[in-house]
Write a structure and sequence with these properties.
Elements: E1 5-9, H1 15-33, H2 40-50, H3 53-61, E2 66-72, E3 78-86, E4 103-110, H4 119-134, E5 140-145, H5 149-157, E6 161-170, E7 173-182
Parallel strand pairs: 4-5
Antiparallel strand pairs: 1-2, 2-3, 3-4, 5-7, 6-7
């Protein structure tokens, strides 16, 4: 990673920037890139539940979770973020998942103008060891939208395999996600 970028743990000073980055990357990925025509009320509902400063505050303060950001030191902008912590059946509905025992990559986004520059790799290279340390000898889970082939390939490169499917709610809309799992101790 170039010296002008820093990978670090997020703190409470980042919650507003994280909220904006979350909304931006979600819109870039699903609305602009994939052309999903979400009703405005569904996007607003998603933002209130999973992209608000309050949501990020909870994630940062939760000792069982970690939030990382990549910041551009030249302008202070956040360009990528990831949230890792305990897996939960509510978020990843799979019979093999042990809630609060297994680990999960809860969120993982890189701004579109910074993709394919190694920032996702940098985030993953810090998330996986952290999850292995905090959820030892346990699998790691994540959801990925079924139409996002690039993300699926990225996760497969890190040992995740598709083992199921689920619905992901964006307001009232239900998206079709794949459930991916990485076996324990693959570092």
């Amino acid at each position: 990673m170039e010296n002008k970028f820093v990978l670090r743990r997020a703190d409470m000073n980042d919650v507003d920037s994280l909220s904006k980055l979350c909304e931006q990357t979600y819109h870039e990925t699903f609305v602009e890139h994939f052309g999903i025509n979400y009703p405005e009320k569904d996007l607003n509902s998603y933002s209130r539940s999973s992209a608000s400063p309050e949501w990020f505050s909870q994630q940062i303060l939760d000792q069982s979770r970690a939030v990382w950001v990549i910041e551009d030191n030249t302008n202070g902008e956040l360009i990528a973020y990831a949230v890792a912590g305990p897996a939960d059946q509510k978020d990843i509905p799979h019979d093999d998942l042990c809630s609060n025992v297994d680990g999960a990559v809860n969120c993982f986004f890189v701004r579109r103008d910074y993709q394919s520059h190694g920032f996702g790799r940098e985030l993953m290279n810090i998330i996986l060891p952290w999850l292995e340390e905090h959820y030892p000898h346990r699998p790691i889970w994540l959801n990925v939208w079924s139409g996002n082939i690039k993300a699926q390939r990225f996760y497969t490169h890190y040992g995740f395999i598709k083992i199921g499917e689920a619905e992901f709610s964006v307001g009232e809309r239900k998206d079709h996600d794949f459930i991916m799992k990485r076996q324990a101790n693959q570092l």
